[in-house]
Amino acid sequence: MKVIWAPWRMEYIVSNEKVEACIFCPGGDRSEDEERLILFVGPLTMVIMNRFPYINGHLLVAPVRHVPGLDDLSGEEMLDLLVMVRRSIGILHGLMGPDGFNVGLNLGKVAGAGVDSHMHFHIVPRWSGDTNYMTVLGETRVIPEHIRETYHKLLPRFQEATLDPGGWDESS
Ligand SMILES: [Zn+2]
User: Fold this and answer.
1) Mean pLDDT (whole number) for 68-90
2) What is the DSSP string of 122-151?
3) Residue 133 and residue 13: Cα distance in Å, rounded?
4) In whole angstroms, what is the distance from residue 42 CA to residue 65 CA?
5) Which residues have a catalytic role annotated?
6) Which long-range contacts (CB under 8 A, 24 or more apart) does 42-49 make?
7) Residue of 37, 59, 43, 70 whose CA lies nearest to 123
8) Distance (Å) from CA 126 to ligand 1 centroid
9) CA quadruple 75, 42, 105, 108: dihedral sign
């Protein structure tokens, strides 16, 4: 691995020592949303930025309930989750203009899930030629300042989505 600049890896180790709570379960306290990179918490679905992204703009969309798999979701939760996946793609597309997206689930540790007890969709924006970029940067990939900057660009878009959940204009 080629370490270019990765101070957050230390933060990860430190925070793992003291925080046992699930990174997805939003809890009732919204004051730490920015620190936790939480963009949206609805009645059924939430959106959080991946702290260890494959690329800038890597989002995670999860049910608010702490459940491991698709079988545990109600029909209403399934629909809400997929609607939020679509909305997140629309927001990323409008803000960052990627050429495509990878959207997927890692179910179980063996499949690559970092947190396998609380299911979540990965949404990874892709740009033509970004594989070269990712190969070069290896595991470091994105510096944390970029994550914070992107968080503050994405947040108002998700807040608009909160105010008007039915009226998202995907062309914007
Ligand atoms: Zn959880």
Assistant:
1) 96
2) EEEEE-TTHHHHHHHHTTT-S-HHHHHHHH
3) 26
4) 11
5) 120
6) 42/80, 42/84, 42/162, 42/165, 43/80, 44/76, 44/77, 44/80, 44/81, 45/77, 45/80, 45/81, 45/83, 45/84, 47/84, 47/88, 47/158, 48/23, 48/24, 49/147, 49/150, 49/151, 49/154
7) 59
8) 27
9) negative
Q: 8-17, 23-32, 41-50, 131-140: which range is least confident on average?
A: 8-17
Task: Give the model confidence (pLDDT) of 2-30 as tens digits.
Answer: 444 444 444 444 444 444 589 899 988 88
Q: What is the mean pLDDT of residues 45-64?
A: 90
Ramachandran assignment for 57, one of left (phi > 0), alpha (psi -120 to 50 degrees), beta (any other): left
Is 40 exposed, middle or buried, given 0-12, 13-18 or 19+ CB atoms closer than 10 A? buried
Cα 56 to middle of ligand 1, angstroms: 23
Using DSSP bridges, classify how beta strands 121-126 and 100-105 pair: parallel, antiparallel or unpaired: antiparallel
Cα 71 to middle of ligand 1, angstroms: 16
